[in-house]
Amino acid sequence: MATRIVEPEAGPRSKRAAILAAAVDCFGETSFEATKWSTVAERVGIGQTALYHYFESKTHCLLTIMRLELQRSHDKFTEATEDVEDPTEALRAAVRAAYEVSDHEVLQMRILHNHMDLLSGPRKSKREEAERVEARKLVQLVERDWTNLLVRGMSMGVFPLRDAQLLGASVLGLIVSVWRWYRPSGPTPLAEVSELIEGACVRMVAT
Amino acid sequence: MATRIVEPEAGPRSKRAAILAAAVDCFGETSFEATKWSTVAERVGIGQTALYHYFESKTHCLLTIMRLELQRSHDKFTEATEDVEDPTEALRAAVRAAYEVSDHEVLQMRILHNHMDLLSGPRKSKREEAERVEARKLVQLVERDWTNLLVRGMSMGVFPLRDAQLLGASVLGLIVSVWRWYRPSGPTPLAEVSELIEGACVRMVAT
DNA sequence: GACGGAAATTGAACTGAACTCAGGTTGATC
DNA sequence: GATCAACCTGAGTTCAGTTCAATTTCCGTC
Question: Can you give the residue ranges of the HTH tetR-type domain (chains A, B) (predicted)?
Fold first, then answer.
């Protein structure tokens, strides 16, 4: 069924994880386009060409970061909602879970949502395309997560009947729109954002 | 006060408008990164180098498109809301206005919101930086448009008191999140989207 | 403790798209 | 029909991403 990409099992001296971490920092702070691939190499402490042992291209690395973040988001959603029967409470839990993130994950979110458009068109190389397809699947999974939650609420009569797909996409859109502007160093603490959005989402789907 | 960039007055044989139009088509359909600057030239019917008579760089062209779109959005908001005293009705009118767009404007919206991150960091060249600064100002203007609308409603007692800035950003985020996925050729008509989002926004800010 | 082989790394060379430069055309105005 | 600015071009430069051919490192095995 859901065929997760097998993470290349890390040999003991693999720098894959280090590269991903460095790339997240660079891409998240400086932006993907503006950071030189060679800078990532420097930060890890290897030559530029060594990067190609782990990733087919700069974009392949980006797509991998995006896929991993999507996987995390989906897992977190599932974990937060699976034991909650009341739809409103489940919705609240899902929103809160979406904002329970480390600073590093904030960067990953920013990277992910700033490059969503990459997932629409096909890629030329094999491994890039594999990551892209997998990421697209995960996007649809996450969308279904939210939609299903709403459908459940509607069929239980807790939420008024509306186009669940459209409303689900909207709720999700509202939640992730935060990653455009939120900065850990900024004036608004994430807890405050979380609280306001949680309320907004509940009102959106409720009467 | 608000110093609009003076649009270079078009000489009779200027191709600036044609370049902008072609660029919107290319960037909107193929994405900015993936479209070759020379393709835009071809589509207009000039050599690549002629582009540099009108724009300092590919990015300068992109920033111009973004600024123009922001200007349009702000003007449309103002026009739609200026004569409406009731805050709820004004909010409804503003949302509807946001979705009263041509197919070409849909592309501009997509381009704008896919490259918002460009506006955060400074640019190296003069004219790029000028466009960037102006665009940033317009972003803040638009944010203030929505926030002020909420503040008015709150002070009139129509909307419950909440962090207007945060809520304004959220409403705006919800509205523009649509441009990520909406396609004129897709299954969902924009009118339907507009209606659902209008309701969602009203519920978000209301009791 | 030499040996084979996979994983990891490298310097030098290549590519292609954005951009520069130095000059050439066009056409409105006097 | 001279002038001047707007407009355009072909030939070359740059630079980040990428490829290539070859080497080093490390681990298990004989």
Answer: 13-73
